[in-house]
Amino acid sequence: MAEPQESIFRVLNERIRLLVTTFRGFEEEAVPFVCECDQETCFAPVELSLVDYEDTCSSGGRVLSPGHVAEPASEIQAV
What we know:
alpha+beta; two-stranded antiparallel ribbon; two-stranded parallel sheet; globular
């Protein structure tokens, strides 16, 4: 089961995805999501395209800033 912070940031990232899809509609542009790592004090932005974000979520992964970790380790890191 996901930790509370991870769940909150996943909900926030889903809202960001919805807003970008609704108002911008640019699936290939970089979008600032929030890192979903295990650090309680992390609020790092992670820029991903909507396609990369959706692929990460659909595969059970988490959005992570470079060098950040999460368990289980199925994630995408920003470049």
